[in-house]
Design goal:
alpha/beta; Beta-carbonic Anhydrase, Chain A
């Protein structure tokens, strides 16, 4: 083996601020990373999967959903994660892109809000002790989506 790059990293086990479930579409990486920093997320377990939270809300197969749940549970077990942040974005190929909504960004945003609510409800049902925040990201910003617990007036734990 030949060392090709040197860096120094902390060796101690860390506690995760949040597990982040998001799509691997890189167009939104910089903006979403800046947003996470702004809300105080410094240490995260990033779980990138096509469609992001779609795999909880409307997976192509139950295996996708189970895989994602296992990744979240592993983050909780290994890094004492208390918060999961769910993300979906505009023009996502996992949903057929903006074309699947006839080019109507309002209809797309409404659909993704409902998807995030379904994903959060599923996740909170599967792992009741976890707090969940949900965000829709488009080409102009990050939009918060209320979870079922927040809508019911129950503060996330």
């Amino acid at each position: 083996m030949t060392k090709v790059f040197h860096f120094d990293a902390a060796r101690e086990r860390y506690h995760c601020d949040a597990a982040i479930v998001w799509c691997f579409d890189n167009r939104f990486h910089l903006g979403f990373a800046k947003f996470l920093k702004r809300i105080g997320i410094e240490k995260s377990d990033v779980i990138k999967i096509a469609g992001g939270a779609k795999c909880l809300a409307s997976p192509a197969s139950e295996a996708e959903r189970e895989f994602l749940l296992q990744q979240i549970r592993t983050s909780i077990r290994l890094h004492d994660t208390k918060l999961v942040i769910l993300m979906v974005h505009s023009d996502c190929g996992g949903y057929g892109g903006l074309e699947a909504f006839g080019g109507d960004s309002g209809a797309e945003a409404q659909h993704h809000e409902e998807e995030l609510q379904r994903a959060a409800a599923f996740l909170q049902g599967a792992i009741p002790e976890i707090a969940v925040q949900s965000y829709f990201v488009d080409f102009e910003g990050v939009w918060a989506v209320e979870t079922a617990k927040e809508i019911a007036g129950i503060a996330p734990s």
